[in-house]
Amino acid sequence: xxxxxxxxxxxxxxxxxxxxxxxxxxxxxxxxxxxxxxxxxxxxxxxxxxxxxxxxxxxxxxxxxxxxxxxxxxxxxxxxxxxxxxxxxxxxxxxxxxxxxxxxxxxxxxxxxxxxxxxxxxxxxxxxxxxxxxxxxxxxxxxxxxxxxxxxxxxxxxxxxxxxxxxxxxxxxxxxxxxxxxxxxxxxxxxxxxxxxxxxxxxxxxxxxxxxxxxxxxxxxxxxxxxxxxxxxxxxxxxxxxxxxxxxxxxxxxxxxxxxxxxxxxxxxxxxxxxxxxxxxxxxxxxxxxxxxxxxxxxxxxxxxxxxxxxxxxxxxxxxxxxxxxxxxx
Length: 330
Hints:
Elements lengths: L5 E10 L27 H13 L4 E5 L10 H7 L5 H15 L2 E5 L5 H7 L5 E3 L19 H13 L4 E7 L5 H18 L2 E8 L16 H14 L5 E3 L8 H5 L4 E5 L16 H7 L4 E3 L5 H6 L7 H7 L11
Parallel strand pairs: 1-2, 1-8, 1-9, 2-3, 3-4, 4-5, 5-6, 6-7
């Protein structure tokens, strides 16, 4: 059944650091300390992005960065020069800054322990971690952060803490069809236990130059339609399926069960997929045959349940309408 509308959020993408302990076979984002493109954004740089986001009418600050960068030689020194001992404490301060400026944080810091999620919860409207796959695949070989059990545990911790959560699968990284179904069912089972998963991203792999998987093929539309259709049958109705409109044309995917088009930024590029520009809102609407509704990084059902902290409450009230969606931006 065709959804009555598709949702999206307006955000700024903040790539806090591209230093990461994992070296996945498909990742073009990661850099080592010493590489000329390795970076750790300063507070001033983050503040500039946040300020541009508020001026552009965004409601979300998407913090994305490499997992456990402190495990990479040389990163701790970079962090200490900014006055912090660990990346999570730095992220907490940046989330507080985001709230002061007027954007709701959504953080994707990778695999976390429960106490780290507890630190971040008061200052995040929602958080996320892609499961990617519940299978052991060659692209993740030797990568501590990509052990499925570790990622599942983080998603479960978020459920225990009642954090509205985004997860998903990456299609085409060497998993089988059965692996894909098992991954979606794993997410379903976690949600049925905790009730905190607001959206599941079905993301198509895009090969990146100078990576081990540069010669691999992206999944075709037929494969993506089959995956989205299966996910919609498996997942509970209250869990949205998200597809990325800068990576794949979403029209047919919406017709078979996708209902969210993710974060679209008027100010920043997709730093994970820099070759794939975001559509603007008019272009986004032209991609689907149903109306668009703008949401916050926290979905309406979790706004209504008040799954947010006192620290975030004033900004939620300022930005959302009576149904829990984003107030019309003019």
